Each structure stands twice: as C-alpha cells, then as structure tokens.
Description:
47% of the residues lie in helices and 11% in strands. By secondary structure, the protein is α/β, with parallel strands linked by helices. It folds into three domains: 22-46 and 307-438, Glucose-6-phosphate isomerase like protein, domain 1 (Rossmann fold, 3-Layer(aba) Sandwich); 87-267, Rossmann fold (3-Layer(aba) Sandwich); 470-498, no CATH class. It has a six-stranded mixed beta sheet, sandwiched between helices. It has a five-stranded parallel beta sheet with strand order 4-3-5-6-7, sandwiched between helices. One of its GO terms (molecular function) is monosaccharide binding. Its EC number is 5.3.1.9.
Amino acid sequence: MSSPALEAIAALPQVELKSIFTADPDRLTKFTLTQGPIRFDWSKTHLTDELLDGFVKLAGDKGFAAQRDALFAGEPINNSEGRAAEHPAERGEGNAQSVSRAKMFHARMRALIDAIEGEALGPIRHILHIGIGGSALGPDLIIDALGGDGARYDVAIVSNVDGTALERAISRFDPEATLIAVASKTFTTTETMLNAASAINWMVESGVEDPYGRVIALTASPEKAIEWGVDETRILPFSESVGGRYSLWSSIGFPAALALGWDAFESLLEGAAAMDRHFRLSPIHANAPLIAAFVDQYYTRVVGCQTRALFAYDERLRLLPSYLQQLEMESNGKSVTRDGQPVDGPSAPITWGGVGTDAQHAVFQLLHQGTVLTPVEFVASIEPGHALDPAHHRALLVNCFAQGAALMQGRANDADPARAYPGNRPSTTILLDDVTPDALGALIAFYEHRTFANAVLMGINPFDQFGVELGKEIAKSIETDGPKGFDPSTMALINLALGGAA
C-alpha cells in the first residue's frame, strides 16, 4: 500500500456490524442514498464516517474529479490505446460533438427500425443477433429483463462459437421471416464472423433469396461490413470511442430497440443519462457510484477479499451477474497502472453470483459459515414482474432482506458449533422501484461509473483489455500454421481431439 491515504484507512479499526446501528443511531440515514428510482443501502457494510473521510482523501490524491471531467469531456482517457471512452455521449452526456454524432447514429437506427416495422424487409418475426462479449451480453440482458412475453419479435442472442448454440437458435426460426443482426466493432471478430457465415449458409440452404439483404451490420467499421457483403443502407455504425462492454447504448442495442420498441430504448437511455448527471455533478459524500467504489476498495484492498458476490432477487435480472462479470473483470482485472507500473495491491475481485432464491439453496452455505469472507450485494425490485399471487413476491423480498440481516447478525451456538453463524459479514442492498427501462438504464450506468471510479482509485486504465488477446492469437496460429512448439500437454490435447491437425 504505497498510498498514504490507503495506509491511513487500513490503520482504522474495523467496527462490529452487530452493534453498528446501536453505536450510531443515524447510520441508516448516513449510508443510504436514493437516486431516481433506485435506493442504495450500504448501512450493513463496515463503512464508517472515518473510512468515508479517508476514501474522500484517497479520491483527491488520485485526481478523481479531474479524471471524471476528462471522461465526460471526451478526452483520450484510454491512454494505452489513445482513445476517449464516450459511452456517456450515447446517452446525451459528454462532448457536444460526440453527443451530436451519437444522436445522428440513433436517428439512422430508428429509421431502419421504422422500415422493418413497415415490412420493408418482408414480414419479419424473428431476430437472430450474433455477437460476443459486450456485443451480446448487453442486448441479452436488456431484452431478457424488459421483454418477457411482451417482446414484439422473437429474439435469439448467439455468442458462443460452439455450433450447438447457433443450431438451437435457428431450429425454432422460419428463415423466410428472420433478420440477422451481426454485431462486431471491427467486423473481424473470429467467433462472430464464423457464426454469421453459418447463418448465411442456413438461409441459402433454406432457399431464401438475397440472404445478405436480411443482414443488419452493427459496427464501428462500416467498410469491413460492406466488404463482407452488407448493403450500406443496412449498416448501423457507432463510434470507435465506444468500447464493446459499454456499447449497448449504441447501435449494438438495435435488437433491444426493435424488440422492445423505440420508446423503451429511449427511456433506457434517459435513465442512464440521469445517472450520468448524478455521477458527474453530485458531491463525493452523496455520489452513489463513488461510495460503492469506496466499499469495493475497502473489502478488496484493505480486508483482502478476493471475490464479490451479487444476487439478483428478481428473475428479470437473472443475467445481471453475467453482464457484470465482463464489465468489472475485463475493465479492472489489470496488474499495471496507467503509467505501466505494477499495481500496488489487489485489483478487481472475482465477480460472481446468481439469482435468489435459487442461490440460497446452493451457495449461501459458504457465505454464512465458510471461512472465505465475501461482500454480498443484493439487487431487488419493490414491484413484481408478474401478475400471480402477491405471496410470490413477498416471499422473494422477505428472503432477500432476511439474508442480509442474517449475514450481519449471525447466531451463537456454543453447544453445537456446526449450527453457529459468525455474522459480521457485509452486504449492500440495491432496491429498484420496478424493473422499468429507465430504472434498468440507471442501474447499468451506475455499475459502469462504479467500475470507472474503482479504476481511478487504483490508478489503472479500465478501458483496454489486452488480456483477452494472447489466447486468441495462439488459437489463430494453430488454425493458420498448425500446432507447433507447444508444451507436451497442449500437443497431446490437439492430437487427441483434432487428430494433430488444425
């Protein structure tokens, strides 16, 4: 811990959660914050006034305010690649020129959606969206959370290069009524382009006339899409300064805008923009993404927790843990700082989680009685996503709130240690009014800014992802040059499964 501010934080005594509300009767007021349709509750964490002051000092030492300003100004804050990170501009917040360009691209997307709805491309009923990483996780989350049975089109998101995934998707689609959306920033992503070629072959074999006329390209490299065979009128560009895992607000969100309707997509953007303004303008002591980052930093860098668990107590948010795995671990899973020096401690923890109440019967044993301390985050909604007996939603929320209370309180049992709960285990609760487009937009933007704030506090660049490249390069070399020079284990696996040939 080379930072004096972080060393001072580490020197502060840790409070006991069981007595924390008795010690500070105002604690609930101090450590809860409502922003729009979302209530954030950090009162069951070990955060104290003294810790908060220490982290405010750390934020100042790390130049947080200046880096936040640089993000919204469209400066090249992704220093390793010499790029800005302009996902806020897609929501109307940021550099004026970039905001204007994003609005132009959105208008182009809406015009194409209007044409599709008017059956200019035929009677479309199915959307096959092909992408990977951020080009798939974002649309999948949005459509799954907000669509339900009300989606206007049957959408399948295919990301895995395993042909089983594509085969299962197209098996339920009528090729004559299917539109293919190919999402790739560079339009060269190996897995995506292989899946796209197979989808085209499926259409050809099914007798579809002009299969390339059924393709919509979502890309920052329009020229590559044209080379591949997509007509220019069916290309929806987005800015090179929008990173993949931050791209659902751009034309990558096309299948969501089509399936849910433009009004819903616009509401999603507006909810995110409201969180942008909160993050940009709110003081540090009342800034939700920054306070959440303070909590993250405390448990990861001071306490030494290696994982962070998130449980969505709402079936509509079942894909949120998977979405956040990429956002948080691809962004902040780094070992060097912005200037290339070793990070002076742990960086991002492992993000994992699941859905309540399923997880209670699977992994909560470890959370309550295991020897690995894991900060837990609960996400829930006051309003249910169904019209069944209200007892369902009441049972869901009661279980959610009870788990947080149990983690904190624990239970002694000297007579039978196997039935004892140590307690003093932290949790955060994020409570939405409802899972609506604006609330979901605000929630996702909150996580984006929280990830950025964590990066600033650690001094790293969250906007590159070079760590994903090496394995892909080796795979490509096996395909192009054959297996050469590998260790005995890798050679044996290649020989056994591939017959020694690529």
